[in-house]
Amino acid sequence: MIKKCLFLILLIIIAYAVYKYYSNSPLTVEKPVAAETTVRNLSLGEVIGFVDKQGAHAWLGIPYAQAPVGNLRWASPKAAAAWPNRLEALAYSNDCAQIGGPSLYIPSQSFGKPVGSEDCLYLNIWAPPFQTNKIPTRDKRLPVMVWIHGGGNTIGSASTYVGHTLAVKQQVIVVSINYRLGVLGWFRHPALQSNTATAEDMSGNYGTLDIIESLKWVQAHINDFGGDPNRITIFGESAGGRNVYSLMASPLAKGLFDAAIVQSGSTRTDPISWAENSTSAAISGSRYSSHEILNALLLDDRIDDTVEKADLRQQNMSNDAINDYLRKKSFQEILLALGETGAGMYPAPMLFRDGLVIPKKPLIDLFAEGNYNQTPVLIGSNRDEFKLMLLTSEQYTKWIGPIPRVRDLETYNRVSGYYSDHWKIMAVDEPAAALSKHNPDSVFAYRFDWDEEPHNWLIKLDDLLGASHSLEINFVFGDFDYGVRIPGINADKNL
Q1: How far apart are CA 432 and CA 376, in angstroms?
Q2: What are 107's strand-pairing partners?
Q3: What is the C-alpha to C-alpha distance for residues 341 and 148, in angstroms, rounded to an integer?
Q4: Closest CA to 445 of 290, 261, 197
Q5: Dihedral of the CA atoms 99, 102, 106, 112 (nearest 10)?
Q6: Cβ–Cβ under 8 Å, residues 195 and 297
Q7: What is the dihedral of CA 187, 192, 193, 198, to 10 degrees?
Q8: Which of 469, 417, 491 is nearest to 237 (CA)?
Q9: Rg (CA), the chain
Q10: For the segment 325-375, what is each residue's pLDDT rounded down to a tens digit?
Q11: What are the C-alpha distances in Å from 32 to residues 52, 55, 104, 119?
């Protein structure tokens, strides 16, 4: 009887925690009211935003590029057109097309299904409150921070992170951006490289080009919001940090930023063969290469009933036929052809060493040679990066209903330590050493430690998570209502 009562109490506690978790979700927030004090006049047209929390001025869902749909799918981004009437920037844009999961503010019924839209190339801006006639100018303009979200470059959205607190408390202009994800953001197939395509179109690095296009927009227009285009810092976490590294190496990003912050990033880039070849080729490609995805689509259409037949059909299709076939597919069909993914993430080839957008050499070699966009850079990782991954492993944790428990704490900490130290070596130590050869006074490193999560009879989050992957983000933004939202962790007392 006592056990049943305890179990009932546990269920009530969990139900209340879940209720509080979702009742604070941005999904429940009413649409803001436009405020005349936020009117800004850009060369593209007039835009109006709203007064956000902390009194910040905010503008959400401003287009920085044309919608990459139709013939613009798998093409370099085209600059956004001017808008004829006042643009009401009061709500986030669509999330970029992806497989739904817990990284987005969406109902759980949408998990594992294609969500979002291809029309997603928008950015968001937060600034301290300035009257329209008192926007900082010249040497009083504020530094700018451009946030690149993580998610393995296959999931995630700028809408998950809110910049009002960072903008007001640190007196900076905060910008967050969306960029194409997964096989819609990084995709190379010879059939798409027609004679009319530009070199950028042929690169396949569309997600990277989106980020570069957003930086061009920021540099051209942030002055109208009180930001200094000569003091732009790019910062990102996980895949966002990986993208920051790639921008440091990209010749096309030269001059678009003045400082960089890499949080738990990676210097990995992929060869073209990994992006294009079949898995059975002499030089093997990824199981998510363009060749394999086309095979999967042909099989899904029941045009062929074996991989071998699909492979043969693909070899006999003309480039025009393949081009037409791929472009007529909906993004939902393309994403479903990937098969089952873990929480929406999948190891698609990306950041291709095409020699134009991304240099042909590995990034670590470029950094060691000094052949990169040299700016001050802050690099770091979290002490317990890998605990977030071990949390879902049955080998190391057991779940009592929705409550995880560590099976053996000593083993859990040891294994996490091995992988987290490896992460630090690859993400921080080696890049910092390479970068320091040519810019020793402008390379800084950090480690994020944290042990203040709840620790009680019900759950011991300090053991389970510690300073795990992504937990520093809320501290960076100074906000615990958004971003990584874990009941018991996201509390004002942690600020």
Answers
A1: 11
A2: none
A3: 23
A4: 261
A5: 30
A6: no
A7: -80
A8: 469
A9: 23
A10: 999 999 999 999 998 777 789 999 999 999 999 999 999 999 999 999 999
A11: 8, 13, 20, 22
Give which of 159, 110, 75 is closest to 332, Cα–Cα: 110
User: Helix (H, G, I), strand (E, B), or coil: what is residue 456?
Assistant: coil
Token pair recorded at residue 209: 């080009």
Instruction: Return the structure tokens found at 350.
Output: 């990306």
In angstroms, the Cα distances linking 435 to 54, 113, 367 are 38, 41, 5
DSSP bridge partners of 122? 63
d(CA 158, CA 210): 13
- Of the chain, the percentage scoring pLDDT greater than 90 comes to 77
Pairing of strands 122-127, 98-99: unpaired
Record the tokens describing residue 327, joined without a space: 């472009």
Q: What is the pLDDT of residue 16?
A: 36
Closest residue by Cα to residue 349 from 212, 99, 182? 182
CA distance 444 to 439: 10
Strand-pairing partners, residue 40, are: 47
Higher pLDDT among residues 426 and 305, named by residue = 426
Write the burial class of residue 216 (CB in 10 Å: 0-12 exposed, 13-18 middle, 19+ buried): middle
* Residue 113 three-state SS: coil
Beta strands in 223-335 (DSSP E): 227-237, 259-263
Name the strand (E) or helix (H) holding 308: helix 307-316
Q: Residue 355: what residue type?
A: G
- Ranges of beta strands (E only) in 282-349 are none
Measured distance CA(142)–CA(135) in Å, rounded = 10
Contact between residue 75 and residue 201 where contact means Cβ atoms under 8 Å apart: yes
**Which pair of structure tokens corresponds to residue 159?**
């809408």
**144 closest CA partner among 126, 129, 160:** 126
If one counts every other C-beta atom within 10 angstroms of the C-beta of residue 389, the result is 15
d(Cα 82, Cα 359) in Å, to the nearest integer?
Answer: 33
Determine the Cα–Cα distance for residues 144 and 266; give it in Å rounded to an integer. 23
CB 327 within 8 A of CB 333: no
Structure tokens at 307: 């991989």
**CA–CA distance, 439 with 433 (Å, rounded to integer):** 10
Measure the N-to-C terminal CA separation of the chain; round to a whole number of Å: 42
Q: Which residue has the tokens 């009933």?
A: 305
Grade residue 439 by pLDDT with cuts at 50, 70 and 90.
confident
pTM: 0.92
pLDDT in tens, 211-257: 999 999 999 999 999 999 999 999 999 999 999 999 999 999 999 99
